[in-house]
Amino acid sequence: MYCIGMIEDDAAEASSVMLSLVYNAEQLDEESFKLYELEKKENFREELFGLLVKDVQENKVQCLIIDYKLDTLDEVLEGIEVVNYMHMVVPEFPVIILTDVPERSKENDKADPDKVYAKEIFMKPDDMGTKEMVYHIMRNIERYTKKRAELEIRRNQILDKVVEDPEYGDETYGELLEIEQELNKYVPIEMTGIDLAYDMKSMRKGLEMLREYKSLLE
Description:
The chain has 9 helices and 5 strands. α6 (128-164) runs antiparallel to α7. It folds into 2 domains: 4-145, 3-Layer(aba) Sandwich (Rossmann fold), CATH 3.40.50.2300; 147-217, no CATH class. It has helices spanning 11-24, 44-57, 79-89, 102-105, 119-122, 128-164, 170-183, 194-197, 203-217, and strands at 4-7, 33-35, 63-67, 95-99, 116-118.
């Protein structure tokens, strides 16, 4: 079961979006959504961004749907700010933009044109355009979750080997580093430190870092 996070300041529109998704995706039901609370207050932006990162790290949400224009948060937060932040922190995480002006939204460099949808169409569950949009959303979620899982499994397999057998060579350490760097595109992770302190002549130090990291994962 997937969970889609929603950043929308209009409850009626949020309900319509969820209806279209449930109606057109058998993988979703009424429990498949997390609607983030929006409050016009100081430091709200930082609090929301921190919560989003935490939820992605803990795999609580596998996609975000964001209203491009958040009227009730005027001067506090705009939807595109969330898009830009997520693109910077976790670029491969699926972020969908709903907007009344899709063409203008697509002009933003951080907005993937294929993930910018018109509200007017999306809120009509029976519309063929909506069905196609939902299909692409689900495909993006499936690709994201599959790739993330593959990278996490591979990372843990290599981590177990190098921790249990220090004789594994430089190539194995380098492979672990490459996997972590790729995984960081799918989930914001605290790197083992080997990416910062990796030194061919300091295997012992690197191994200690890996052991500490492994203990955190258990």
